[in-house]
Structure formats: C-alpha cells, structure tokens
Amino acid sequence: MLVVMRQGATAEEIRRVAAAIEEMGYRATPLPGRQRTVVGLMGNDGRVDASRLEGLPGVLEIVHVSQPYKLASRESQSANTVIRLAGGVTIGGDDVVVMAGPCSVESEAQIIAAARAVREAGAVVLRGGAFKPRTSPYSFQGLGRQGLQLLAKAREETGLAVVTEVLDVEGVDLVARFADILQIGARNMQNTSLLKRVGQVRKPALLKRGIAATVTELLQAAEYLMAEGNADVILCERGVRGFDPATRFLFDLTAIPLVHRLSHLPIVADPSHGTGLRDMVIPMARAAVAAGADGLLVEVHPDPAHALSDGAQSLAPEQFAELMRQARAIAEVVGRRVAEPAGVS
Amino acid sequence: MLVVMRQGATAEEIRRVAAAIEEMGYRATPLPGRQRTVVGLMGNDGRVDASRLEGLPGVLEIVHVSQPYKLASRESQSANTVIRLAGGVTIGGDDVVVMAGPCSVESEAQIIAAARAVREAGAVVLRGGAFKPRTSPYSFQGLGRQGLQLLAKAREETGLAVVTEVLDVEGVDLVARFADILQIGARNMQNTSLLKRVGQVRKPALLKRGIAATVTELLQAAEYLMAEGNADVILCERGVRGFDPATRFLFDLTAIPLVHRLSHLPIVADPSHGTGLRDMVIPMARAAVAAGADGLLVEVHPDPAHALSDGAQSLAPEQFAELMRQARAIAEVVGRRVAEPAGVS
Amino acid sequence: MLVVMRQGATAEEIRRVAAAIEEMGYRATPLPGRQRTVVGLMGNDGRVDASRLEGLPGVLEIVHVSQPYKLASRESQSANTVIRLAGGVTIGGDDVVVMAGPCSVESEAQIIAAARAVREAGAVVLRGGAFKPRTSPYSFQGLGRQGLQLLAKAREETGLAVVTEVLDVEGVDLVARFADILQIGARNMQNTSLLKRVGQVRKPALLKRGIAATVTELLQAAEYLMAEGNADVILCERGVRGFDPATRFLFDLTAIPLVHRLSHLPIVADPSHGTGLRDMVIPMARAAVAAGADGLLVEVHPDPAHALSDGAQSLAPEQFAELMRQARAIAEVVGRRVAEPAGVS
Amino acid sequence: MLVVMRQGATAEEIRRVAAAIEEMGYRATPLPGRQRTVVGLMGNDGRVDASRLEGLPGVLEIVHVSQPYKLASRESQSANTVIRLAGGVTIGGDDVVVMAGPCSVESEAQIIAAARAVREAGAVVLRGGAFKPRTSPYSFQGLGRQGLQLLAKAREETGLAVVTEVLDVEGVDLVARFADILQIGARNMQNTSLLKRVGQVRKPALLKRGIAATVTELLQAAEYLMAEGNADVILCERGVRGFDPATRFLFDLTAIPLVHRLSHLPIVADPSHGTGLRDMVIPMARAAVAAGADGLLVEVHPDPAHALSDGAQSLAPEQFAELMRQARAIAEVVGRRVAEPAGVS
Fold first, then answer.
1. Whole-number Å distance between alpha carbons of C125 and B59
2. Engineered SS bond to C317: which of A209, B13, C117, D312, CB 3.0-4.6 Å?
3. Global ipTM
4. pTM score, whole prediction
C-alpha cells in the first residue's frame, strides 16, 4: 500500500504516517519526490485496512496495490473453479451452460411448459423466480413456497437442475431444500447478512452483479460467500446502470474477460436483463459467448404476451431455440461446447 | 398509461393491444399519428403493471403517466409529513435536524465522547453503527448487540435520540429495542424483505438512497415501508455512483427539492458519505441546508486519526462545531432553524 | 408528440397548450385521464421542437413519439447503407472490415512497418492519427501535415485505404486531400461546426460515439453530416464513460444491434479504446463481431513498448494476427466474412 | 509516478521498467512488496507521460502522484485568480457575480427586454447565445452575427458585460469583437483546436464542464487555454450526465469546493442547465452560492412560454428577482456579497 502525502506535507506529518504504519505492524518506506512524498507500507500479506491512515493530517490519497479479496483471486488459485451439479453438468470448465426459463413461476402449466421447451432446445438448468424482489410493492411478488414446489416438479419432469432466487436470510433453508443453485439477485449483492448465510450452505450460489457494482466489489461479495466456506460461486454479469434510456441496463461484457483475469470463478451472462429488449437478446447472447462467458441466463416464457413480469424481454420458445443454435456455433469457434441435457443427443 | 406502437404496426397489432387493455379492465383510446399510433390506457387509478402489454407484438414503448407510488406521493398527501421523536424533536417541519456521530461504535469511551461532543455543538440525534455492512468481509463489521447497548448508554448520558442501521430481517426487533430511528442503508434500499419488516415496526425509519437508485426508486422503496403501515419515513440523499474518482460519490443535492415536489416525506442529506472527503463536508452541508434539506447526517469522531472506519471523511469535534455554526446561519436565511438539544440554550 | 399535464392542471392551462399546438400548425387531441390529462400533438411529420410547449404553465413533461432524426433512420431508408471505398472495399454489406494501425503516426519507419504488418494480417484500412486531440496540452499532439503525408506514403506502399482524424473546420480540406475516410473523434461528436463542414465533403466519415452520448444523440450527430449531403457515414462504438476504473471505458456492444434496428448506417467497434486494456482487445473484438459489428477499429503498433501514445492498449503485430484469425471464424458463424486486402488470397 | 508491477513480474521485467525510466531521464526506485513490486519514478517536475511504460511487459498499472496540469493548479499559484471586467466587475474575489439572460438571442425586443429585466434584478453580466450548438440539426441554431450585434446593443443600453458562446476556431475573432467573455460550451470542452485559439485571445474565457468530464479533465482543458497565454479562465459547473431521467443533468456542486482546493481559478455554477427544471433553479442557485460558487449563470427569458429554446428551464423576470434576493442572503452568510450593477444602489 502506498500513502501519497499532500504537497507541502511537513516532515512531522510524514513521520506520523510512518509511525502509524509501524504501529500497525508493517514497515514504512518513505519515497521523497520533488513534489510529493509517498510512504510505502511494506510487509503486508493482502490488503490492509487503511482507515487509520486516511484520517491522518497531510495524507492526500491511499493507493492500494494488493487486491481487496483473497479466496476469489486468481493469485490465490490459478486453476479455474469447476462446479459440478447433480446430473453431471459442470460450470467453469469447457462447457457453456445455458440456464433458461421464465422470470416468475406463475402456474404449474406455465413452468412445466417452459421447462420442457427450454430442455427441448438444449438448456440444462431451469431458471424461474418464486420469490421476486420487485421495485414496486404493488407488482407481482412471486408464488413463494408454492413456486419452489412447482420448480421441483418441473425438475422431476425434465431432469433439469433448478436455479432460483433467495431474498433473505430467513428464506435460505427453504430455498436450499428445493434449488440446485441459490441465486443472489443484483439488488442483494451487498446484502452482507444474506451473503454470509448463503456462504454456509453446501449448494452452489449464483451471484449477480449489482447494477452499480464494480468488478472488484463483485469479487468482494463473492469473498463473503467463500469466507464462510462456500467455494462454489458462479458470478453473473447482468448489466449495470447507464445513462442511455434506450436499453434498460448497460450490458458490460468486458467484465467477462476481466473476471477471468482476476479470478478463478466462473462467470455467466444474462442478456435478458442486460439489455431489457427482446430483439437484443440473441445478438448479445452470441457476444457473451464470444467474450468467453461460461454460461448464459435467459428469460424464456411459453407465452411472453401473457407473462406476469418482464414480458418485454422474454423470448418465445422458438426464439430461444434459435439462440441455442447460434450459441453452439459461437462456442465451437472459441473452443468450447454448449452443455446438452442428459439423454439428448 | 400510453402504449406507443412501432411505425408500421398493423391494425391487427393495435387491435390486440386495445383488447388486452380492455381485458385488464381499462379503456383503450387509440390515437393514430402520421408516423406511429399511440394507444392510451384510460380509467386507471394509479400506475398499471405493464408487463402484459410490453410483450405484445408491435409495441415499441410504454410511457407511464402516473407515478409508480401512491402513499409516498405529494398527490396523495399535500401536507408535509412531520415526524415526532421522544424529547420533542420533529423532522419534516420547520426545524433542520442534525444527526451526528461516528461511523462505527468502537468502545464506550469513544461513543460517550462522541455523543457529548456532538450534543455540545448542537446535534439532537446521535448516529453510530453497531452492525456495519462493509464491502469487504475482512473489514471491521461492528460491535453488534454490544454496540446497541453502548448507544443506549450514550442516550441516557446525553438525552440524544439514537439512529442506527439494521442490516437484516432478523435484526429488526433487536435494533428496534434500542434505537429511536432505524436506518436502512444504501446497500439495502431494495432489500424488499427488510423493507417489509421495518414497515411493521412502530418507529421511524431513515431510508438511504441506493448509490444507483433514481429518485423514483427511492420513493418506491419508501412505499414498501408505508404499504406495511410505517408512515414515518425519513429519506436520505447520500451520494450516487459517479464517474469521477475525485470524490467517493456524486452528491446529488437536486434530489432534495425534487423529493419535496414529488413527496410529502422529509429528506435529510449526508455530506460525509456524499463526498467522502473531510474538506468537502462543511461546504456541502451548507449547500444541503440551502437546497432545503430537512436535516443533516454527519460523521464525527472524537479522534478521526484513530477511527476504525471512514476516518478520511469524519470531522473532529471542533470542525463539527464550525459546521453547526454555518448550518444555523444558512437555515435562518431559508426561513428555518436548526433544532437544538433540550436544555441547551 | 404527447404533452403530459400535471395533476390538477386547470382547464385553462390545457386549453392554452392546445391553442399553442394549433398555432404551431398541428392538431391537438386532449386525452383526459383520471389523474392527468395528456394532450396529443397530431399531424406532424417527424419530431417537433417542443421548446414553446415546455415553458407553458401546467406542463409536466413532453413525450416524443417520433425519432429526432430522419435521414439516419431505418424508417426513412430500410436497406442498409453500403459504402464503397476505392479498391473495392465495402462497409455496411456482408463484409466485416478491419481498420488497424497505431494510435499516432510517429515516423515513416513506424507507419510503414505498421501498415505492412496489419495488411499482412488481413486489415484493409490503415488507421493512424496525424492530428491528436489529447486531454493534456503537454502530451504529444501528432505530426500534423507530415503525418498525413506519411499515411499517404503507407497507402502507396500497401494499397490500404487510410482513415485519420480531422480536428477542426480549418483542417477538413487538408485531411480530405490525404484520407479515404475522415474520422470525427469522440470528443468532437457534438462539435456541430465540424460536423457541418465534414458533411460537405465527398468522402466517407467515421463518426465515433461521444463518451457520454446516447445512441439517439449519435444518430443526431450523423444527421448533421447527412443533412449537409454526406450520406456515407460510418458510426463507431468506442466505449462510454462508466463508473468502474478497472477499464478505461465501458464498451457498450448492445449499441451495435440497437443501431442496426434504428438506422441503416453501418457501425464498427473499437475494442482498443473501448476497453483500454490490451488483454481485453481480442475477446471484445470477437464479441463485437458476434454482436453484428460491420467492422473493427484496432490499435496495432509495431513496437508497443515504444509507442508515443496509448501503449497500454496497442496490440503487437502477432497479437493482431491472432485477432484476425478469431474474427474470421466468428464472422463466418454470423454469416459474414472478413474483407481481405486486394491481391491477398 | 509509481509503476505497479503484476504479481509474478520477473526480475527482468522490473529491470526493463527501471531502465526505461532512466532512459527517460528520471531516477527509478524499486520497492519490492510481498505481493507486488512498485517502481517509483523520481526526479520529475510535474506529470510524466507514461505511454512508454504502460506498454512494457509485467506492468499492471501506473499511478500518477503529480497533477496532470500546472498553470491551473493551486500548487503553482496559491492566491485566487481575480478577473476584472470593464466596468469594475471582478470574478474570483469576494463578489458573487450573476450572469443572466435568455438561452438564445431571438430578436432585438427580446434581448433588450431581457437585459433590462436582469439588470433591474441585479445581474452584472448578460448571457445569450448567438451561435447555438444544438443536438439536432433541425433545431434553431441562433441568429449568428446579428445576434452578436444585438447583444452589443443590449450592452450599450444597460451597461451589462456580455458573455456568449463561440463554437469554432473561425468564429473566435468575430465573437471576441463583440463579447466581454467568450464562452466555450460543454460539448466543446475537449475541442482542443478551439481551446488553443481562445487561449490566444486577450479576453476572459468561460469554460463549461463537459457532461462526462472529471474535474481533472476540466482543469486540463483550462490548462490548454492558459498554456496559450490566456490566464483569465472562469470555470463553470453545469451538470454532468447521470442515470436518473428525473433531471436533465446531475448538478455536481461538490465540484465547486473541489476546484477551489485544486485550483486558483474561479468557478461559477449554472443551475438552469444543471437541473433542466425551472422549479429547481432557485433552490440549486442557493445551494451553489452556499457551496462557495464565485458566480451564477441563469437562464431568464422575458416570456418563457414563447422561448425558442430551453423554455422549460428559463425563469421569468419576477422569478429571477426572487432568486437574486435569496442569493444575496446566502452570499452574506458565507462572507461574500453579490456584485451589483454600476449605478444601482
């Protein structure tokens, strides 16, 4: 860590910074420049909490040189994390894993139809919300426990694994009983109580990037899960807040190769939320696979015109089948293959 | 609500949109323009969920004309909400209420010293975190229950009301036992489970704006609290995510008069988090009061150089006393007065 | 266009809005809702300037239904614009056109080496800056006229077409004498004097998106060029300003299919500026082609470690050759082919 | 400057960075940490161009410790720059200077009426656009030279100084003949050709912050003007691009005390463009003065309902008079006074 002193910082101020560093148990190395002095903090193993130094007189800025996460970092583990689901699906290896289904579970007929349609087209994981975090209290909030039961039923029928969102600490045990992967939504990416609790579960977690989270903050959120013992973390790029109202979010695909450089964790992309526009989902799914995504999360509804939520961005089954064909072709070019459902050839 | 059709939408597509609107129980009024047709949805009382319409063929865009919140809106209640704390402090009336204290409760000595210092300078509410939502799992996470007890002790000593953050549904009862105002932090502004639970408490809530939340979304989050029965919601502007690394956040003071136009709820401003820089706190506190803020939330530490968190933005007691002097002078110019602690003249 | 009135707008206010619309030569159709009245402006051909209406009492908001550009819109021309360069290269058709070269022209040896290297790898257009718009006045500002002459020399040697930036109205004639395509940089996207002047030139223009420009504003800037008579406009996505310092810009690839939906103009992508990080250029070039980009703009330097500008994002020739191989494979999957230099098989 | 090496950078890579630094004429001091090595570049006077180092193998990041501007920095000149206009108005001293008038000069009657009204209320500078940079080529582009003549006429009538925008290099001499202050608009903040040319004029320049410019970039743009010899630069905060459509821009008032810390140049604030909403102009004008602004730029139209541009944000004369009353009261509290027109008591 480097402590940059203001121009004109006094010798006494520099001395106090050095003393504080030594008190904290590290070594201080002042580097006097023509305009400013920089004091190096040496001997640390990982990022140091700079709160004490930030408040000292004469300090202009703290520059961190170490990453603020450890377990999630590529430096701590060079090989990719590969997560294995029941049924043989792996995430983070050579396969590109497609997770698809409706925004919300609405009824047995709907979720079964959706599950069959996405399996038919080649998805290996069924997505669907039972507990929905909606911006307005008056929007449909999901079927809750009943939604989980319907997802389990759809799994029985199709053999697909199930990913669904968990909204709060109280719901973790319940969701973990039904789901194969626990999704933490973008709004909850920094809900540290929830992160800690999901970190104690022995099931993989799908952690969506917050709409204003940096990649570093996403990895710090993953660190919360990992620090509690859950090493099976799948990250998800789903668009960040931008300034152009033409799309619902700004889909940040550069985050994919960036995460691969900084971390060993797999990262999937959600072009449905990432764009918010049905017409953009297929081209951006192609782009995500081309950028190196380890999987896709796609909203598919058997009848988008009657969806209770997110109708504007859901694909109809035949559109999703087209997406799968294109994703397979791109995956091949980048030396990967799209995972296929068991028993489908 | 207005449904804008794509150019070239067919008569059949327009008919289907109109039919869907009628099915939803409203009246459809097509307005055929030269380039596009707009279908008005009439007869609604408040915002309609547009999910079904968004998914229909030929639909370009939905334009909402009604606000997506009711109880929080100025249209539903024209008079300002005025919240009364024990001890006679009111928020949302003529008074400008200053809440001050350290980022985290660190020890009995620290919180008592801080409480005395801020009361001495004129604050009427003590702030201080017992449960801290930190970006990194390795940062200091707060003293928890012990921190709450110390806050209560500081209240006894000084008569100040206490505001402190509640992180999760499980903690609500505990925090409500000790605090006078329950703070919901920016990271949790869309934690709907927490919002619903705090909405059931009979104590005022301080709702901080999420770092990427629009003012509309802030008011929708307030609506969650109010829909559960808690009408005593204090909003807080604390800076949004910007692109300039020179400040930690981008302090959006225009949100203050905007909230006053759209809503009857009080809004306070937090120049400490809003800027992240100690030197900016006093001028931006002045600016916030000048913009019409109903109060200020300020980080004050008896010894900023030894703070366990947020040292760089905490004021020392004498700096805070200067802030109070300036805030009083600005408040007077805008026809208000800074609330004074009971028994201080 | 729709004029949304405030709740509680008086009948007189609504009447004045209707009267103003009629005065402007259009038809006014009031739509009284339960909460608000909307007044439709009918009979317009294209977007109407709303300034007069915005200022009227009782007006809450103006909602534009027409696009604010005409010549650039897909609605005015449904077939893609295909731009033909000397030498047979076409942009906007089936080919994916790769433009590559150094950030700045530095010397004859450098630009000739760069031109040969990029041609060898398969680029058909040479990029290189003679006039450089630098953030700091103390950074290298380019070789100016001499740089243009060196670009022309490189063209003679290699047969590549040349794209280079024009900074101001005064430089247009000079640059047009040497370049095959005139580049308007991101900083100048709304320099309307420059846009108008380049609109009068009979050479194609490459218009880079401003770092905070919406796609609509990009198309409005193109409209400036087209309104002056220059129909050969190539748009370029090069990253927008984001909040995450991990990348220099936020590369907005969704803009590519969005532009294709809204406009008939070709759009290319610049992964070098779009990410600012050498390691990200190849994956994001793949992603751009997968998203449907009509071409790529890539920084290549014969010796990146000695580049006078943008060293951190420039590819070495062998890295660029690898990019070309991958781009060709992706292009094929999306039904296109990467244009090849004449005489290369 | 500090060069942060990647973890695992080889001794040879570190040696090459050090060698490159020595070749550039500076001294290299390696600081080996447990995780990474940092190489300090010492002996520089001001910021060094890092292009050569960024491209070297093993380099992770460059951290600049010096400011990237000199003449504009507080470090180069500790006393505030005070700019004197004819007629005795000073900007950057104790006075708060109000510049007001219509968005565009529309006619003689309009500009004379506006000038009289704003002078009556206490403005000392008349603003008004003769050359307008509009997003759409079909919007009103200003009266051009005739507009300048009308501004000069209004000056004769009222004694107010005149500030008006210059759009391009070609227009500089013409505008400088008529205006007292040359305005460079937000869209042109990085139009380096224009900056250099205005830097050669012997009249003050008003430099508006670009909508996505950091404060550092604003000061670098000022440096372009100063490096050419024009020391009389007035900066202007006018809102940056944000994500909330509720306001046209996000008014960043923290930029005011930040500029005052980093630079000796005066900075004024434009609450009309900064918010885009008439109702927000007065509270945000108050906030700007409270934050320490050296002046205000306010849109005032004698008849906002008939304005040819920006009607929605223009104040009527009586609203402006109210703004002035409130600005005077706030100015007094912060130890300043609002400048008064000559001959007005």
1. 40
2. C117
3. 0.94
4. 0.95
